Amino acid sequence: MSTSRAGMDDVLRVPFENPVSSLPKTAQKILVAASQLLMHGGYDAVTLEKVAAEAGVNKASIRYNFGNKAGLVGALVDFTLHEEFEQDLAALSSTPHEDLVHRLIDGKREILEKTDNLRGFFDILPHALRDEDLRRRIAACYPWWAEQNLTLLELQGSGAEERPAVLRGLGRLLSAVVDGLSVQAGLDQKEADMDAPLKALEFLLDRALSDLERLAAEANVEGAGL
User: Fold this and answer.
1) CB under 8 Å to 207, separation ≥6 — which residues?
2) Quick check: 49 and 69 in contact, CB under 8 A?
3) Which of 83, 124, 130, 178 is the most exposed place for a label (fewest CB within 10 A)?
């Protein structure tokens, strides 16, 4: 199956604002400051006081733009996901269909190589499990992330409602690969081998792709009522 790339920008549009380009300049400064604090000091370093000092603003400005710490940290997660898929989207338009799996794996590798960003992200998660607002905020990103994984392989079909369970599961599994390998890399930064499991994943996807494309095509036909 060779799905048309027409309208791909619309398909991949993030369901939340891009913190880099869409927010006011002051909010962008706050987000950059919070990102630096998270990267170098972990979740506990991202206090409204420290973020305000780092950004050169007052705490009221943070509350005005993000509501509270959960809103600010959620925006950091948005930024991380948005940044990665912006890069993948830019590469997608020039990637031949037969190279989509390889490009997807390269994208996952690039995410995993950004260990500082990942370390900050995973420092958030234990706190999210105890903070209901933050948990719901971050959990809301995952369905979008899974959807983009399928779109980057041109397996999105006619949409989530008509999609076979295997494809729904694949989208989530590809997100889980990054999560799991990131944890391993954080625990064993010198010895963890990220390349071997990524090559294994590429091997498996290459061999399953024709069947996956058939499932997506059949879902398209059913969704169209043909």
Assistant:
1) none
2) no
3) 130
Q: How far is CA 106 from CA 60, 110, 111, 202, in A?
A: 41, 6, 9, 10
- Residue linked to tokens 């499990």: 129
Give the number of other CB atoms < 10 A from CB of residue 123: 18
Give every residue of the chain whose pLDDT is below 70, as ranges: 1-21, 80, 83-90, 93, 115-118, 157-161, 189, 221-226
Structure tokens given for 103: 């490009």
CA atoms within 13 A on the CB side of 208: 15
Tell how far CA 79 is from the center of its chain. 9
Contact 50, 37 (CB under 8 A): yes
Pairwise CA distance, residues 68 & 45, whole Å = 15
* Residue carrying structure tokens 């105890």: 130
* Each residue's pLDDT tens digit, 29-52: 998 899 889 888 888 899 999 999
How far is 123 from 209, CA to CA, in rounded Å? Answer: 35
Between helix 115-128 and helix 165-187 the angle, nearest 10°, is 110
Task: Read off the tokens for 193.
Answer: 């081998």
Q: From residue 1, give the alpha-carbon distance in Å to each of 150, 207, 214.
A: 14, 15, 7
Report how far residue 72's alpha carbon sits from residue 23's, in angstroms, rounded to the nearest whole number.
12
The DSSP string of 104-117 is HHHHHHHHHH-HHH
